[in-house]
Amino acid sequence: MRTMLPANYYPAFKKYEHLKGNYGGSWWHQNKEFESFNGPILMTTNCLVPLKKDCTYLDRLYTTGVASYTDAVHIPERVNGESKDFEAIIEKAKTCSAPTEIETGKIVGGFAHNQVLALADKVVDAVKAGAIKRFVVMAGCDGRQKGRNYFTEVAEKLPQDAVILTAGCAKYRYNKLDLGDIGGIPRVLDAGQCNDCYSLAVIALKLKEVFGLDDINDLPLSFDIGWYEQKAVAVLLALLHLGVKGIRLGPTLPAFVSPAVLNVLVENFDIKPITEPEADVEAIMAGK
Fold first, then answer.
1. Which of 65, 70, 124, 131 is the most exposed place for a label (fewest CB within 10 A)?
2. Tally of CB atoms within 10 A around 59
3. Is the per-residue pLDDT at 244 higher than 60?
4. What is the reported pTM?
């Protein structure tokens, strides 16, 4: 599902002809999309939604690593360096119906730092020519709250000379919009999964170097992050360590942000909550 989207971008997987694409959206749709997928599902992370009483996919739900679920088959860890044994999943797949089609289309991705840096000259030229006025990092987590429509609206309202850098499941709020490109550079550059936020930091540091800047905050770069859970803490701390200021977080602030912590973040890093899409877009494009 959501992790299969970036899997299609990894060069090492190109040799597998049966890796056909991505099915569905972000993690919180799984109660519905696992039903219509019809095939076996392997959970490798903590993004497993408790199954409903009338669900039909428990007998084709598998877990591995730190993930587990009552009555789901768990794939054991490697023994003596050998590969994990996925034979049970393969045999199950042979008995399942084909997935029910829910959508069609293509999404351009695979813009981790190596790929973007290979296009660095083209990106720099577009910035210098004024074709790209702003990069907006809209990475992080998705969730079921209606307030997360904010990120869809921001993507729609950003002017045509703004490029979105994304990673994590937050992208499912806007990665299927027809936002076009700027001289062949897609307006949504998807680096991949949550942990690929590292690539976005590398890109920012490289751009700082290319433009000969002393401070990352002097780049035409803004951060509008979708906050949800504990994994995002590492990303936020990494950005603060790099000295990034003016980060917008939403739709809620982290649970650990007490009034005292918030005061430190505001005073030292200018952390701010998201507001209304139109107002935030105006501020972002003005570099505020």
1. 70
2. 11
3. yes
4. 0.88
